Amino acid sequence: MTEGFFERPKLPCGGGITPRPIYQKLMIENLTIIRPPILKIFYWENFDISGLNRKLRSNRAEHEHIIAVPVRQIHSQPLKMIFWMRNLSDKELELSLKRLQNCQCQPLQTRVGFNQFRQLFHCPHRRLLQVNQEAMKIKPDEVVALTVTAYFFLYGEHLLTYEVSTGDHRKFLWHFKLEISAFDPEKCLLTKELIPVNIRNYYHVTQPIWVQNITMQHLTFSFSSRDRGMKLLNMSLTVPRQSVWPLLVDYRPLDYENEAEVLLSFENAKARYKIKARGVLADDKEETDMPLKERECVDFLHVIYPNRVSFEVCLREDRTQLVNVHNYGQKCMEFRWQSYIINEFFSVVFNPPTFRLKGHHSKLCEIKVSVFDRLVHFRRIPIVLEVHRILDRATLIAKAELEEIESIDDPKWKEDSYVEHVYLHLNIRTIVKPASEASDELDAADKIDPTAGPVPCSQFGHGSGLPPGSVSSPAAGAGGDGPPPAPVLSPAMIEEQRKEAERKETISRLMAKNKLSSNEVIELSMAIDQRITIFEKLFWKYLSKSKFMRINPERKRVKAVKTYEQVIASDIEQNPDNNSETDRNHIIEIVSRLMQEAINDLAKNWVFIPAQYYDRHP
């Protein structure tokens, strides 16, 4: 009897432990903001898309996330946001959205007919946010657009919650935070943290604090600061309506972690801002997972690729890069670049500045950045590309003839051609070479006096002798009794080793395949030839087959008897009166112009263009 009492019951087959369910994964692949007042990266960071993707890709059954829309003025234009969602699982994913009430609004008795009444909601919060798709089915590896439109007609801060449910019983709570106000001096600065400053370099580098004007009037601000390490270069700043303007600061951190204070004054109102500032030992680059390519849609027909461009320029030098503008619409439109020039610091100009594009056509544009005599480090410069409709000839004649007539109230010919604008995210950083390289390039008569300031292309101070990214070893003292310092690789060398390993891995992976697609053939040839882009490879092929700077066969050869020393001698030694100087910027400008013309010539035949730059329909 005792043995039977302590005998354990037999468990069913398989045991009593149930495995943890594995849920379907998804992510926000891209974000499109229709006619945004500021750069897209501010929305990407405010929405915390990176954090949201970590939650969506995890195996958690529930999570909450706050999507904070940047502050907007009352009665502003509605803001349409498109979240591009990708299904990462191998099965179809079902999504459903349902609004949850956070306010205290109650149904009111409302007349709906003659002597008929019903209890209906008149809650204004329901109209602040509109989600177009309440139910979606996403196929494996498919991208679907979730459109959210925000309206700004009610003062205050509002938290609107939507419950997102999936087919495998996951639930997410997405809280959309709207902040609607009139002009508020305490919400004018977009910059929350300054660009980290390299404290090993004793140079004064100018960087911006971005000031936003959300109103429809030009506003003039005054700024001041009591921090010892901060110098404001334009203390009085006029910001145009619906624009973002830079407050130029020269900041030198006193410690690794700092907090700078800036006082903003507007008329009789004042606001204090505390901005984080860090000191670092090595220059770091801006890290973001925001995609470089926009997704076209019905509301976003004019696309710039890439949408973010970074320049690293020496003092008193020019650099150029190319971007592609594509018109996905059906009509021919006119595009106008807005030049961006800050005197004594840098200038950004475009070639061509104005051009027209037919529907489903592209245009390569050259961006030329010139840095003057000041060291700068600018991030998130909003470059504007205006899109205009092309007015017919009759409208142009009417505008020219009737421009001074005021008796006609708002006639049709007074309509502006402006349609919208598209932003290009631009970063500019002044780089300087090590002092040893700068001194080697200069002659003895052209040496720069070290007491006159920093060398135009010098990275480290006199006596430093440390390569970029290296760290001095305290163990190797003056007596040399410490162990020898271990070799420290610079970030550039580490990056070069990483690229070489990726190149070898790509070659081995593609060579192992029996059959390659057209894109894989291009990728393999680029990896073998160590080309950066397919455009570079095609450009040099095009240039080698062209007759550019080739000797004309009709040109007569001049026979001359010269010794070997005379042949290899330079022209300057043969002709001491030759004072010609080589303009490096002019040479770079010619090469970039030739590259642009060559790529435009190649683009006439789509076979030479990679698949991501054209729409091929077999």
In brief:
This protein has 618 residues and is α+β, with helices and mostly antiparallel strands. It is built from eleven helices and 30 strands.
Please, could you describe this protein's structure?
The protein is an alpha+beta fold and 618 residues long. Among the domains are: 156 residues, Immunoglobulins (Immunoglobulin-like); 96 residues, Sandwich (Immunoglobulin-like), CATH 2.60.40.10; 118 residues, Immunoglobulins (Immunoglobulin-like), CATH 2.60.40. The chain contains eleven helices and 30 strands. The longest helix has 21 residues. The chain is globular, with a radius of gyration of 31 Å.
Write the layout of secondary structure elements.
Layout: H1 2-6, E1 26-34, H2 40-46, H3 49-57, E2 62-68, E3 72-73, E4 79-87, E5 93-100, E6 108-113, E7 116-120, E8 129-131, E9 135-138, E10 143-150, E11 156-166, E12 171-181, E13 197-198, E14 206-213, E15 219-224, E16 230-232, E17 236-239, E18 243-251, E19 257-266, E20 269-280, E21 302-305, E22 308-313, E23 318-327, E24 333-337, E25 340-342, E26 346-351, E27 354-357, E28 361-371, E29 377-389, H4 393-401, E30 418-430, H5 435-441, H6 491-511, H7 518-529, H8 534-545, H9 564-568, H10 571-574, H11 584-602
Parallel strand pairs: 2-12, 3-12, 13-20, 22-30
Antiparallel strand pairs: 1-4, 4-10, 5-9, 5-11, 6-7, 8-10, 11-12, 14-18, 15-17, 15-19, 16-18, 19-20, 21-23, 23-28, 24-27, 24-29, 25-26, 26-28, 29-30
Biased composition (Low complexity): 465-476
Region (Disordered): 453-490
